Amino acid sequence: MGLDRTDVAVIGAGPVGCVAAIALARRGARVTLLEANPVGKRLAGEWLHPAAVDLLRDLDVPLPPTARRESAQGFIVFPEDGSEPIELPYPDGRSGVTCEHHVLVGWLRYVAGTLPGLEVRAGVQVTHIDEQTLHYGQNQLTAPLIVGADGRGSVARRSLGLADRREAVSMMASVRLTDVHLPYEGFGHVCLGAPGPVVITRIAPDAVRVCLDVPSTGDADFRKPQTLIHRYESALPASLRPAFRAAISTNKIEWAANQRRSRRHFGRPGLTLVGDAAGHCHPLTATGMTTGFLDAEQLAKSHSFKQYRKHRQARSLGPELLVEGLYRLFTRTDPASRALRQSVYSTWRRNAAECTRTMRLLSGDDVGLLSFGRSFLMAVGGATSLRGSAGLASWFGWLGKSVFPRVARHGVSFL
At a CB cut-off of 8 Å and minimum separation 6, what does 184 contact? Predict the structure, then answer.
């Protein structure tokens, strides 16, 4: 049985684990990065917001050669009523990056492997953690700091004795279209009017990803290609429909589960959780990788676990509420929600400052609960003028249920 030591052991060499390992190694730590699986193609994050791009630059990590900055200038929302699309650009001319997930993972693992003091161990399946020692096969590795970057089913999280707390939200069906042009090149497209939002992004010079949010409570017919065509095709821009129909008809569909888990727990001293291991949201706003990168950055900067936890807890609630709020807004069909949706559309169209606030929250540049609250109350005011206040109580109930428990745990400074 082998036993060795390192300064930091990072479990999971996905994008967040690689960035955590690189950030800690850049600060002088001797880091061992462990990964069970080879790089494979799977349906996962392919969009980095500007804050994540800035972080890679600060860590002196070049972008993959196929990464596309020109494809991530912001988002275009296509309302379900067929009215004029709404442009939500990133503020100050900033841009994000799109890149196929397996390409990004392979690239970050390559960069990590070139750094002095950073060892990448592939094919390593960590089975359990005992205090500061992790076990894999017949081997053990001891480190003063263990970082759990091993995703939703995290071994590190289980070793802490935390309840799983994952909630199913919906399913995601995805197809890859080639040789098509987007109506608004340079932007992610969010199309409404189907049973769930459709998100379309360019992920390569010749490829576009179409992701369909499919209700998990729907009937079994939702899994059938013809049902997906029937229920979702009309929500897409007309220019994409033939390619979409062809891809779905040949059953070239990838599936993944959309889940959420509130970011309440970040580990303990000596065993820290980052990225999806700490918590995650519905992928509607593509915040997952960016949130994990910001976890990694703060972990490398923090002088204690307490400092890291306080920082990341305080900066998680605003983005979480935005994602959950937008998903509810885009999928609920009751009269109050329809009025609230029309109010948001109207606000985005006439109020450039509100567009900026939305994008700053979405991209992680502004994490303040008060900023979210101001936007929420503005939308409610507009909805009240459209339809009256009937039915909006459920929205205030959702907000209270989401916010008050956190304030009770962390105090008003958490706002």
Answer: 76, 85, 87
Burial environment of residue 206 by CB neighbours within 10 A (0 to 12, 13 to 18, 19 or more): exposed
Angle at 182 between CA 326 and CA 229, to 5 degrees: 70
The dihedrals phi and psi of 164, each to the nearest 5 degrees, come to: -60, -50
* CA distance linking residue 100 with residue 69, whole number of Å: 13
Number of H helices, E strands in the chain: 13, 19
Domains and CATH numbers, the chain: 2-64+99-165+261-314 (3.50.50.60), 167-259 (3.30.70), 317-414 (no CATH)
Residue matched to tokens 């059938």:
224
Band the pLDDT of 415: cuts 50, 70, 90: very low
Q: Which two tokens stand for residue 349?
A: 């169209």
Burial of 250 (0-12, 13-18, 19+ CB in 10 A): exposed
pTM above 0.90, yes or no: yes
